[in-house]
Design goal:
Two copies of one chain form a homodimer.
Chain A lengths: L1 E2 L5 E5 L1 H23 L22 H16 L5 H17 L9 H4 L13 H19 L3 H19 L13 H12 L2 H13 L28 H18 L2 H17 L31 H18 L2 H15 L17 E2 L29 H8 L8 E4 L2 E4 L4 E6 L2 E7 L6 E7 L3 E5 L7 E3 L4 E3 L2 E5 L4 E5 L4 E5 L9 E6 L2 E6 H4 L6 E3 L6 E3 L7 E9 L7 E2 L5 E10 L11 E2 L2 E3 L3
Parallel strand pairs in A: 5-9, 17-23
Antiparallel strand pairs in A: 1-4, 2-6, 3-22, 4-5, 6-7, 7-8, 8-13, 9-12, 10-13, 11-12, 14-15, 15-16, 15-23, 16-21, 16-22, 17-19, 18-19, 19-21
Helix pairs in contact in A: 1-2, 1-13, 2-3, 2-5, 2-13, 5-6, 5-7, 6-8, 7-8, 7-9, 8-9, 9-10, 9-11, 10-11, 11-12
Chain lengths: 597, 597
């Protein structure tokens, strides 16, 4: 399936549009200001000297690059001279400070210039990849090619060092990213050399001895043999995205097959119900199948974003609605939980459970390690905030696709598609409601994704189901009505932390209970599947849910009893998971105690 | 209630008698051999010099002291020349190496002689206390008073340093223990100075500024104001035991009231269903009320033993059966889980849940910290093994008590009591069966504890209930029949990790499921209260239980589903909790997923 890029699609209304606007009006500036304060912006002046404060960090280039990429997506749709000047100034500094040979990296120019391309774990190629993504985005959005020129030169230099001379201290990137960026460079410039460099990195991975050449960096075996998602979850998703890109360009069936296996392994064995990926902070990594602890979940915001990228390529590769389902799950849950309601604070880790009573601080002996409980404005490793900056303004790319005579509607967002010979207007307040109107021109058929979570729908036309899409003749306005009633979700019982529990979703939105609404004994609410949830207004742009249930009562005496604790009728207030922790520090629970009898 | 010491009571048969015999025939030797290999025995020669291997550790004296105490209890009942010689040799070394002024401590003589009594956290008074307990035990068991003479001299020296001269670098012990030991010294010798020294330490605690003078060492406030069990759980139990001893001796009502509050706080807010105390390895400590995580439980074997000591004093103080219930719970569960079936290996920590799939080792980034999963022969801090050595041969002291004209039967163990003017023979295979025969002479009444766990009993005589005891006229053989049918136990729902779960007990024994019997998906067994358990033979000296239940089946596709997973009829094999991890590394679960609907 060919998908339409974000430049062809304007979002026009609804929940995700509001988040896109929040990014444009608040988040993009908040991230820049924090990056300015912390020295990341100033580092581009290349004037740091030993003894100065704010020593550049090895991955600061990438933070700014992702921010520039996001700014470019905004500028493509909205004139914003102030924002454009910030980008221009940064690009000018890149141009000024790039090495004659094309090399560009702040840390390895002002701090350790003698050690370029010696340490695989030091993110040089990762930074390069993000600068290349920014370069393509800026060129596409504004027509300005200064940064692209710089990055073409840098890519040529990298090709020389890693392919022609093979003179670097390692063979493949420790942190993947440049692979997918090189495909973007290739697609935009048409220069095959960039695709070849991507193929070189992907094909060399796991075939040579190198530092951390283990599962942590997905370097434990050749990529075409990999079937289990392992190691650092963001690196994994970025690699798999690059693999899928390369496979699409080359038609490499073995690579495609590996991508499918890796996707299914994540989706079916290693993903939280919220889309969160990565069960442990130790290495920010995947662990074993079905090991999904809720309170210590890592579930990095960037991993959900990486999964969006990967699923987008898989949709391009195979045109199956399950990949669009994944994008939807991640957009609404795993990714958006990383962003505060005011657009200025962020989660890096996204746990599915907070029990403040377990975060006991013994003062002298410390406390157990848990994810932080409230969003913050910046991290020392602040990869997630600018990743949000670039996904939110480019969400249009996930909405529509085309294959043959059929227009595919992959995401339900109020929007207008305009391309040569084809157009489409979608009107919907999804997911606040389940009613979607689609009016398309220039296509014989329209395929509407029937979400995997959807338990019932009506369509005003005859349809046939194909790969998860309801395909209809395009003979006038299409009205799709998705059943948005909230219901219980169960996990495979091999996920031992969720056995005997249930989660609640409404449409694509996973819900959670917070202590601020329900008191701290969240585990004592006993919920029966088949509840009738009441939708109630809520400050977070989506309905809250009131779930009728029972609440277990404290024992009258002692700590243990042969009698089951008494219960009282109760109502559990649930809010969208992505909105947790916006009202102060609070207990939080996704997986509720289930009445399974 | 006056209780009869172990010298007056011989155990004659049954499960605990078998454990006592196991200690006598295996454990006492195994611990000595490990202590010999690791240098603890040799350290008593006081010949270590800088540069030598096996540098004495600050608490090695206490390891050997507890072992000697246990050996003495054995020697009181069984001639064993080899064992006696080991004790005699050690005592001779103490006598030889004690300072002229009475001071005795290996580390602070051969390693840091210049720093005696300068560091509150270095266990000198703790070691002194254990040496005193050993001294009293040896004198009482064998009539040999060499060690007692040494320790009286040492106690005098401590009195001089801490009371008369007030010349130490601190005021009260960092690790409590000497308090209860001084009461033993006082009771055996009649010398009031030892009780006064105990009172000095207890009354000074929490009233002066000192190192770690915080909750970790129960030094955060005067002891009579303490109402919540805090800090290092073994230190806490030892302190509370000393407080109760002192209160019994002095009749101090404020101190008695504090003891009652601290006991109830542990029993009602901070104790695992197995009796385990201490929720975190960070400081080996209590955390907040109801915070009882199962997989990371610390529940140190020594803390259960400390609780036995404390509950024993509380029974002496108040004569309430709830304290005998506590002793029973700890003996059978929290304490005995520390000992392997062969008597030669030990747990220090006693978790209530093992999920091997969660103990993911990322190699480079390590793995989450969990209690060890199989017992080992020795620890670098090996306090628990010799603590078992001394409890097991002295269990007779917990069986009988007297108050006025009533003989109290506190524990049900086949045994014979003989004291001047009174005798009793108890015949029972408890807790394999619930039938207990008691024949007493020389007492007008007999009071039989009706355990708090007991849901039904029959007695062949009329009785009145008093403080948890069924009191009968002593006019012939008494036959008590306790209902031993297994049943479900629920936790107060404020224990969030146990909400929606149930445990299973049969009589005083808490049960667990192991992966070796049931496969690794222990959480997927769904158990309904009201089950009818089948008792089946088991290698661990108590019946195993087969629990009819349902088992949740893996989903047919995907990781999450709107349909509850299917179930199949299943039988869950449960074994006594104290016997877990005797058949290799395995998953283990006490709190089962409950069908609560």
């Amino acid at each position: 399936m060919k998908t339409y890029g974000y430049t062809k699609v304007d979002l026009t209304g609804g929940y995700l549009f509001e988040k896109q606007e929040l990014n444009r009006t608040a988040t993009i500036k908040a991230v820049y200001d924090r990056f300015d304060e912390t020295g990341r912006v100033g580092a581009f002046r290349f004037d740091w000297k030993p003894g100065d404060d704010l020593r550049p960090h090895i991955f600061w280039d990438s933070d700014i690059a992702k921010w520039m990429e996001g700014a470019a997506y905004i500028l493509a749709k909205h004139a914003d001279p102030e924002l454009e000047k910030k980008v221009d100034d940064l690009v000018a500094l890149v141009k000024k400070n790039q090495d004659e040979n094309g090399y560009f990296n702040i840390y390895y120019t002002v701090v350790e210039p003698e050690n370029r391309f010696t340490d695989r774990e030091c993110h040089e190629l990762y930074c390069a990849g993000h600068m290349m993504e920014a370069a393509v985005a800026i060129a596409e959005a504004t027509g300005k090619t200064d940064l692209l020129d710089c990055m073409e030169k840098y890519a040529d230099h990298i090709h020389k060092v890693f392919v022609e001379d093979n003179s670097a201290g390692f063979f493949t990137p420790g942190h993947e990213e440049i692979e997918l960026a090189l495909v973007k460079m290739y697609r935009y410039t048409g220069k095959k050399k960039f695709l070849d460099l991507c193929a070189h990195f992907i094909n060399t991975r796991g075939t040579v001895e190198e530092k951390r050449g283990d599962i942590y960096t997905q370097s434990h075996m050749p990529v075409r043999e990999q079937a289990e998602a392992v190691g650092h979850s963001v690196r994994a998703c970025y690699l798999y995205t690059g693999m899928a890109d390369l496979a699409i360009e080359t038609g490499d069936e073995a690579l495609k097959a590996a991508c499918r296996k890796l996707f299914d392994n994540m989706a079916n064995c290693k993903m939280y119900v919220t889309g969160g990926l990565g069960s442990t902070y130790m290495g920010e990594a995947f662990t074993g199948a079905y090991d999904l602890p809720n309170d210590t979940a890592y579930a990095e915001t960037c991993a959900s974003i990486g999964m969006i990228f990967f699923a987008h390529r898989m949709m391009q590769m195979d045109g199956d609605a399950k990949y669009a389902d994944m994008i939807e799950l991640q957009l609404y849950n795993g990714m958006l939980s990383g962003l505060s309601a005011d657009g200025a604070a962020f989660f890096y880790e996204n746990p599915l459970e907070i029990n403040l009573s377990e975060q006991y601080d013994s003062a002298y002996y410390g406390k157990r390690r848990f994810p932080i409980t409230e969003r913050v404005e910046c991290f020392s490793c602040s990869c997630c905030p600018p990743n949000l900056n670039r996904v939110l303004p480019s969400m249009g790319q996930y909405v529509y696709g085309i294959e043959g005579d059929t227009l595919f509607v992959n995401q339900y967002i109020g929007s207008v598609l305009k391309d040569s010979g084809i157009s489409c207007t979608m009107t919907t307040d999804y997911p606040r409601t389940g009613t979607i109107s689609v009016k398309a021109e220039g296509t014989a058929k329209v395929a509407l994704r029937i979400p995997g979570w959807c338990r019932g729908f009506t369509l005003n036309k005859p349809y046939v189901m194909e790969k998860g899409y309801a395909v209809v003749e395009n003979d006038g306005e299409i009205i799709l009505e998705l059943d948005m009633q909230a219901y219980a979700v169960f996990a495979d019982p091999r996920v031992l932390r969720d056995a005997g529990k249930l989660a609640i979703r409404r449409g694509p939105i996973v819900y959670c209970a917070e202590g601020v609404d329900n008191g701290s004994d969240l585990h004592s609410y006993l919920v029966k599947a088949g509840f009738k949830a009441a939708e109630v207004p809520c400050e977070f742009g989506l309905p809250a849910l009131d779930i009728p249930c029972k609440k277990l009562l404290p024992l009258e005496s002692g700590l243990y009893s042969a009698e089951m604790p008494g219960t009282e009728d109760a109502v559990l207030r649930m809010i969208p998971y992505n909105a947790f922790a916006n009202r102060g520090e609070s207990d939080m629970l996704v997986w509720l105690t289930a009445a399974l009898g």
